[in-house]
Every structure is written in C-alpha cells, then in structure tokens.
Amino acid sequence: MSPEIEALALEKTYPRPWWPRARWREAPRTALRGVSFEVRAGEVVALIGPNGAGKSTLLRILSGLLLPGAGTARVAGRDVVRERPGCRREVGAALADDRGLSPRLTARQNLRFYAALYGVPPREVEARIEELAGLLEARRLLEREVRTLSTGEKARVVLTRALLHRPRVLLLDEVTRSLDPGAARRLRTRLLTDVAARGAAVLFASHDLAEVEAVAHRVLLLDGGRIAAEGPFSEVRPTAEAVFAAVPREEE
Ligand SMILES: Nc1ncnc2c1ncn2[C@@H]1O[C@H](COP(=O)(O)OP(=O)(O)OP(=O)(O)O)[C@@H](O)[C@H]1O
Question: Is-above-0.90 flag for pTM?
C-alpha cells in the first residue's frame, strides 16, 4: 500500500523581504534542507524540534499553503503542487496562526462554508457539525461570531473544521497549545480515536514531549531543516535531548 504522506527531498528557502529597509538587514532563510519521509494509513507521527527547525514550514507545504523550493510531496497519492484542488478534499489541516475563519461569521456559518468547499454532501452537513462539535466540546460555541471567541475556543472550531470531511490525512500544528491541560488531553484522545477508527494518517507538530510519548507511533526530529532522527519516541529521545540542549541561549 502506498504511503498517505510522502515527502521526497523537500527544500524551502524564504526569500529576502522585498521592502527596501529590511532587504539589507535580512538574508534569505533556509527552512528545509532535503526532507524525506513517509507516513502510512493509520499512523500517528509527531514532528518535534526546536523553534525554527522547520516544522510549520513542512506542514504548510503538505497542506498546499506554501510552495516548496524543490522536491516533491504527495498526500493521499496526490502531488500537493500539481493536484492542489484534489488534495484539499483529502487533507484536514489545523495550523498555527490559522487565518482561515471569517471573524464576523458564526462558528456554524464558517463550518457550513468549509463543508461546502470540501464537498460534504449537503444532507450530512448539520449532523456532521453537531457530531464533531460534541466530540470537541464546541457545541456551545457554534452560534457565536468567531471574532468573540478566545484562542482556545477558536482552536476547537479549527479542529472541527479539519475533521468535517473525514480527511484521509490530518495535519496539526500545535493545536492543543492554547487548550487548558484537561481539555487538551480529552480532545486529543477523542480526536485520535475518531481518526484511528477511519485509518487516517496523522502528522502533528508538538513541543509537548509527554504528549508525543503518549500518542505518537513514531517521531520525526527536525533540526535546522533536516531530519536528525526518526523512529519510536524511546529511540529518538536521546538525540532529541541533545538537540534541545545544544540550542544556543541568548545571555541577558
Ligand atoms: N515567512 C517567513 N519569512 C522568512 N523566514 C521564515 C518565514 N517563516 C519561517 N521562516 C524561517 O524559517 C525557519 C523555519 O521556521 P518554521 O516556522 O518552519 O519553524 P518551526 O519549527 O515551526 O518553529 P516553532 O517551533 O517556533 O514554531 C526559521 O528560521 C524561520 O525564522
């Protein structure tokens, strides 16, 4: 069976800013340097690494929001660059700094909009919204305008949106960061139970190593845009500890 997520020699360099005052101060920044890996159906894989390691860049490329500089990426068998519209229906993404929700619409209106975009059959939309909002403790938020929601409340709506169309691939970028610890644990368990039941592939970035140890089948450690280690958490842990310990500290 072919992998659900496949990255081959992915590279990404962010260009210098175009505006003149920043151009001379800022160099182009390389975020990914030849990243290759696979995630199979039913696997839950964690992406860990220090700040700036390239985790969000990788997830943004896989969700079709950012073009890679070189290399290829496939999700659910489709090329994320050449078959972008097709990928949208196969991927659920809840990424950091999510700007995709319309602030003046209610959570329910936003979810209806995305359900239509993802091709959820109209007769299933309301039931699916109710089911997921129940799962993710977001029912009481459905009739509220998004601009009135707290960060943690918005995260629940973003997670609900990511699961609406029962995607084959789920990409999560530190979405539980803004949830209080009890809610984070409950929602994580329910979410993973939901996706595991469907055999979806999950790739999630996290700084919470206890979370990673508890839920990930496998871990990818990114450091400076490269995969520094890959395997079960127990095997990756020593390298991860060395990488985190080597992060330079700024003296006060
Ligand atoms: N829009 C951008 N323009 C220029 N450089 C960027 C941009 N976004 C990210 N970078 C740089 O690319 C590198 C990788 O950033 P990225 O956000 O992917 O890291 P990360 O592992 O997700 O970090 P964190 O743990 O802090 O969320 C960093 O050096 C960062 O400064």
Answer: yes
Domains of the chain by start residue, with CATH? 5-245 (3.40.50.300)
Q: Is 14 in the pocket of ligand 1 (CB under 6 A)?
A: yes
How far away, in angstroms, is 50 Cα from ligand 1 center? 11
Report the pLDDT value the prediction gives residue 198, as an integer from 0 to 100. 85
Q: What percent of the chain has pLDDT over 70?
A: 96
Give start and end residues of each alpha helix (H) in 55-180: 55-62, 84-90, 107-117, 122-135, 151-163
Q: Residue 252 above 60 pLDDT? A: no
Residue 240 near residue 209 (C-beta atoms within 8 A): yes
Residue corresponding to tokens 């990426």: 73
Question: 72-93: string of b/e by CB count within 10 Å (b at 16+)?
Answer: ebbbbebebeebeebbbbbbbb
Collapsed DSSP state (helix, strand, coil) of residue 95:
coil
How far is ligand 1, taken at its centre, from the CA of residue 31, in Å? 6
